[in-house]
Design brief:
heterotrimer; A alpha/beta (307); B mainly alpha (210); C alpha/beta (660); B: mainly alpha; two-stranded antiparallel ribbon; C: 660 residues; alpha/beta; 5-stranded parallel β-sheet; 34 strands; 29% helix
Chain lengths: 307, 210, 660
């Protein structure tokens, strides 16, 4: 089933380089994973706001996005842990028929009805399964495969010492988010290594960046305090770049360091890293918008290629 | 009933603030647990206070807020004590991952937020983001320099600028209105409703992002 | 045709029934029913007076059917059957009606409706009792020996108790020696007795007892049959060492070149392919581990053969199947320690200095891999700060072991004491959630421990454990709930106080014997309060940790109880079977075999007869559940006292009530 690209809000509006990178790595010259662009998607809706305030509204707004995917007959590909959690959880919740009919009562007002995607069957009764929601990492590791990624790398990122940050909602709650073992995740490390870079282990690897749950918006200094802990640990481990799989974590790392004197580790999204490894020109990766300059590690690339 | 008494204790402590530290019977609200369960904070009655949730909670490390205390206060129905600190949950779900009683403390925090909002505690950022979603269909307001970069990268315009996106925005507004969400967060009021807890109102007003 | 003469007795059960149901009115109503000659209500039908009354009525009024409306048959059916039998009537001409659990206890809010329902039930009972037929109890002879499965302390105690009653037993143990988990322990709480010191004399007694036949290195292959007459097939695994000639000198082990991790030492130390599991083994005979022996792998070596002074090594033997007949079976298969998930949350098998309590037990034991010295696995140095973490694998709904393993709080106290005695300068901390010191002398032990030594009890379940890459010390983060603070503390050794799970082979044995498991995965007893050592399978008893995690004193008590229970039918020589079984009408039976397929107790079997295959129910195995009755497409099977006519009459009686 084709992938419907769900960009969410942060990426198009703050880090468009991630969008560009994703399109680049998935195009037919590289990983060749066709992406379907769908204009009708709205905010997933952002869980830190909607899920906290009124779950029914959250579910209905999320269901609306799922109906769009269902009607376009795509599975959703998200690039953000928040979107992943929001849409995945909504799809799970809508397996309950009571919840489904409550949501559909409201969606009727906008001419939509959630059933889930149709499962091809031979019976007279139509069968449905929930709209599938996948995270980019899951698609890269499971559907594309590390081997194929490795083969697509033309500019190995040798010398990059990468601190991987998985974030929270990619891993937890592990009862529903089953991509990896929450205590010992490794897929993003695998992808980074496939790009030719080295991954660096650090004490606070599984710690939260601080942004989520509405904390960044509500009490920024607390969010930044968590980020400070992570940065200390990352610095102590000697990493020169941080890679995330979520634009909110990306935003947090990129901005919190402004309050931490002497700490300036560039942070990129996994799609940026893959794009670089597949030969993309860094000019197209939107790094100019980053607060923490990405140039220090870009120099490593140039130095190598000119040598 | 507070006052200051200067005393020299054995440990050398010089000042003591005297206040009533006793929690009275009337503070225990038996309906509170039912309310929490109603908003999805599954039954917290079986928590035996092992403290694992606090140990893994990132904000319990940084503030006086201890997950375990919140759960205990919920068990006892101490609603007024609880509603002073429900907002500082990252919803990282570590607590749920580790709880031996299979209690989802993060969901309890979410339920507390539902209760707080309905009691009138609505921080500014809720309204700001809601307004963005109503206006642009997205939680983040567009920024000029980003739109310029998008053109350079040939990524096309942002959703709100696309001609047929108006339908999406209408649908989103319809849903929010039909669910009573607009009313709930007072987003259509002239002045944003004052929120009760947290001193970072100014900071939050700076901008939801950056 | 003998006229039916029914006596009905409606009980008050004090106020248990009488407080809700108008028993007097029910009795009066019963009097109006057809064929009811006598109807009474009484305070306590089960009392001597109540029973006497019934007996007298039977004689005086020539009653030939009795209906008692009282509590659940589970309680007094047996009592009343005896009463009826004493009065001279066949005890199966009696019907019990439950107006307590089924009426007064559940309809306490509506007394009128309750009374009406009681009347309905009595009417139904009267209707059915008319159709009851006299039945004879069968008695089967009982083979005078008991099979004890499992040679740990439970099995050993059971066998010894049986022996003291003069009852023969076969003690079957799958490892080369009896002793089980208790042999692996160093000291036992709360006395800090040396475990093997108090166990070994019992093991020797077992070996020497003429009433106990010891089968070690033996598996139970199959069990068929029924109480009094179990046919057991044992697989005596090939030891490759002649039991008569082996003198236990150990020369073979000395020369054996193969070293493998020792199961007895929990992998902390090694053994040879030719080995005894531990020095005090009973029988003290060597075993050659076929899976690892060089000769079996490559055809070379046989150094042991040359070294053996009595020519006891026999590489060419094979497993031998042996058949036994026994009258009763005691399952004492014990427990395995919980294995924490590897490379996960607690760092087990990832961080060198994290071990389980059982591994600690072997380390601290004088005949263990470190000769009793407490050392850090990473560098062999003495640890100076040890932490115990409680409730690992127990009290955890997330991993499915919600139960408390009963012994961990206490064994940790004992371990802490051992450490303090060996190494007074080493600090000990215990991370706990609750302390359960429930047994005799346990709380006093807990008190003494803290009085005599400085042991830190930290209330808080550890949230994070990580390792210092240089020192390989461990850091533990936990909320110390009693301090309301999150603390990070450093230790150089961590012991995980793991819980108990049912031993690996238990499922297979349970399957053979049709034993149920409780929610916690351990074998289920017939009644948790009143029948803790019996199971729902007649003639099969359980004891020790196979039934639930418990300590040694409780295991011993339970093992002796199981032995006494198992000995009862053996000493009586016969076993009484309740005749409420299914019976096949041979004429109607077409031999389709459906009943054989559906029966959970393997009671029906197809037998070739003069006119073809017919089904036959082995009464002793039949539990009267009725599944075959409903499955039979030709209605050829009837369940005694639950025949179609009897059940239909009850239903019709129920429906005769006026429409409300």
């Amino acid at each position: 089933m084709a992938y419907g690209l769900f960009l969410g809000c942060l990426i198009p509006n703050r880090y468009p380089g991630v969008e560009w990178s994703t399109r680049y790595i998935m195009n037919k010259d590289h990983l060749n994973v066709p992406l379907v662009d769908i204009e009708e998607f709205s905010c997933c809706p952002v869980p830190g706001i909607f899920y906290s305030v009124d779950k029914e509204t959250w579910l209905t707004l999320a269901a609306r996005n799922l109906v769009v995917a269902q009607d376009e007959e795509v599975q959703l590909l998200t690039l953000c842990n928040g979107c992943y959690m929001s849409l995945h959880k909504a799809a799970e919740t809508l397996q309950d028929s009571k919840k489904r009919s409550e949501v559909n009562k409201v969606l009727r007002g906008v001419g939509k009805r959630y059933t889930g995607e149709e499962v091809p069957g031979d019976g007279r009764v139509k069968q449905y399964r929930p709209v599938q929601v996948k995270h980019l990492v899951e698609v890269l590791a499971n559907d594309v495969g590390i081997d194929r990624i490795e083969k697509s790398v033309t500019t190995p990122l040798t010398g990059f010492r990468v601190a991987v940050h998985y974030g929270c909602h990619y891993l937890r709650p592990s009862t529903t988010h089953t991509i990896e073992n929450p205590n010992r995740p490794h897929l993003v490390d695998d992808i980074v290594r496939a790009c030719g870079a080295t991954t660096v282990e650090y004490d606070e690897k599984l710690a939260c960046c601080g942004a989520g749950g509405g904390v960044r918006s509500h009490v920024k200094e607390l969010a930044d305090a968590l980020t400070a802990d992570k940065m200390k640990s990352i610095q102590a481990a000697g990493a020169d770049v941080i890679v995330t799989v979520c634009p909110f974590c990306l935003l947090q790392f990129d901005t919190a360091q402004l309050t931490l004197p002497g700490i300036n580790t560039p942070v990129v999204h996994i799609s940026n890293m893959l794009a670089l490894a597949m030969g993309a020109d860094p000019l197209f990766l939107g790094f100019d918008l980053h607060n923490v300059s990405v140039n220090p590690i870009l120099r490593k690339l140039r130095r190598r290629t000119t040598a | 009933m507070s006052g200051e008494t200067e005393e020299t204790f054995i440990g050398g402590q010089k000042t003591l603030v005297v206040e009533e530290k006793v929690v009275l019977d009337k503070e225990y609200d038996p309906e509170f647990v039912a309310e929490i369960v109603k908003y999805g904070g599954r039954d917290v009655k079986t928590c035996h206070q092992c403290g694992n949730c606090t140990g893994v909670c990132p904000y319990s490390l940084k503030t006086l807020y201890k997950t375990r205390n919140i759960i205990k206060m919920c068990q006892l129905g101490l609603k007024s004590l609880v509603l002073q600190t429900p907002w500082l949950c990252a919803t990282c779900y570590r607590c749920y991952e580790h709880c031996p009683e299979d209690i989802n403390a993060a969901e309890v925090m979410i339920a507390l937020r539902h209760i707080a909002v309905r009691d009138g505690f609505i921080p500014d950022f809720i309204q700001r983001v809601t307004r963005n979603v109503r206006q642009y269909g997205q939680s983040v307001a567009p920024a000029r320099e980003v739109e310029i970069l998008r053109t350079q990268l040939e990524l096309g315009p942002l959703s709100y600028a696309k001609p047929r996106y108006g339908k999406t925005i209408n649908e989103v507004q319809y849903i929010m209105r039909a669910m009573g969400y607009d009313k709930l967060v007072h987003v259509l009021d002239e002045k944003p409703k004052e929120k009760a807890a947290g001193a970072a109102a100014d900071q939050a007003a700076e901008g939801e992002v950056r | 045709m003998v006229k039916i003469r029914i006596g009905v007795y409606v009980c008050h059960c004090g106020s248990n029934i009488g407080g809700v149901v108008d028993s007097k009115a029910v009795a009066e109503y019963a009097q109006t029913l057809k064929d009811v000659v006598v109807a009474r209500d009484n305070k306590y039908t089960c009392s001597d007076r109540g029973q006497e009354e019934i007996k007298q009525d039977v004689k005086e009024h020539k009653l030939n059917r009795v209906v008692i409306a009282s509590c659940s048959p589970n309680l007094h059916e047996r009592t009343f059957r005896r009463t009826v039998a004493d009065a001279g009537l066949n005890p199966y001409l009696f019907q019990m009606v439950n107006i307590r659990e089924q009426v007064s206890w559940v309809h306490a809010g509506d007394k009128d409706a309750a009374t009406e329902k009681a009347k309905d039930l009595v009417r139904m009972g009267v209707s059915k009792v008319r159709l009851l037929e006299p039945l004879l109890e069968r008695r089967v002879t009982v083979e005078k020996s008991v099979l004890v499965i499992g040679g740990g302390i439970a099995g050993i105690e059971a066998a010894l108790q049986l022996s003291s009653l003069g009852v023969k037993s076969h003690l079957v143990e799958r490892t080369p020696s009896i002793g089980g988990r208790m042999a692996q322990l160093d000291k036992t709480f709360p006395t800090t007795d040396c475990s093997i010191c108090i166990l070994a004399p019992k093991m020797v007694e077992v070996g020497a007892s003429p009433n106990i036949t010891l089968h070690t290195y033996t598996d139970v292959e199959a069990i068929e049959g029924y109480v009094g007459n179990f046919n057991v097939t044992l697989r005596k695994k090939a030891r490759h060492v002649n039991m008569d000639r082996c003198i236990g000198c150990g020369s073979c082990a000395e020369v054996c070149p193969v070293k493998v991790p020792s199961e007895f030492d929990m992998g902390m130390g090694n053994r040879k392919a030719a080995y005894v599991p531990f020095p005090q083994a009973v029988p003290l005979k060597y075993t050659i581990d076929e899976a690892n022996c060089l000769y079996f792998k490559t055809g070379k070596c046989q150094l042991c053969v040359k070294a053996c002074p009595t020519d006891a090594i026999e590489h060419d033997t094979i497993d031998v199947l042996e058949d036994l007949r026994v009258g009763a079976i005691i399952v004492a298969t014990g427990f395995d320690p919980y294995t924490p998930k590897v490379r996960d949350y607690f760092g087990y098998r990832e961080f060198a200095n994290v071990m389980t309590a059982m591994e600690f037990e072997r380390m601290v034991n004088a005949s263990g891999p470190t000769k009793g010295h407490i050392v850090r696995p990473s560098d062999g140095k003495t640890p100076r700060r040890i932490a115990f973490i409680q409730c690992v694998g127990s009290r955890n709904k997330k991993i499915g072991n919600q139960y408390c393993s009963n012994v961990c709080c206490m064994y940790t106290m004992k371990n802490a004491q051992i450490i303090k005695e060996h190494e007074p300068d080493t600090d000990v901390s215990v991370y706990y959630i609750d302390i359960r010191a429930h047994g005799k002398g346990f709380e006093e032990y807990y008190h003494r421990l803290r009085e005599r030594y400085q042991i830190e009890y930290i209330r808080g379940r550890p949230a994070k454990i990580w390792q210092d890459p240089q020192t390989l010390n461990l850091k533990v983060r936990a909320e110390e709930t009693l301090l309301n603070q999150i603390t990070d503390r450093e230790f150089d050794l961590i012991v995980l106080s793991v819980g108990l799970v049912p031993a690996a082979g238990t499922d297979r044995i349970a399957g053979m014997l049709n034993l149920s498991k409780s929610n916690d995965g351990f074998l289920q007893e017939a009644h948790p309060k009143l029948r803790p050592v019996e199971t729902t399978t007649e003639g099969v008893y359980i004891c020790g940790c196979a039934q639930a995690p418990k300590d040694i004193p409780s295991t011993v008590a339970q093992a002796r109880a199981a032995a006494a229970a198992a000995a009862a039918p053996i000493l009586r020589g016969e076993f009484v079977i309740e005749p409420l079984v299914a019976r096949v009408d041979e004429e109607a039976c077409v031999g389709c075999g459906l009943c054989v397929e559906v029966c959970p107790y393997k009671a029906p079997r197809l037998v070739k007869g003069p006119v073809g295959q017919k089904a036959e129910i082995v009464e002793v195995l039949c539990r009267g559940c009725g599944v075959c009755v409903s499955a039979c497409p030709h209605h050829a099977i009837k369940a005694e006292q639950f025949s179609d006519e009897q059940l239909e009459s009850e239903m019709m009686a129920a429906l005769k009530a006026e429409v409300r």
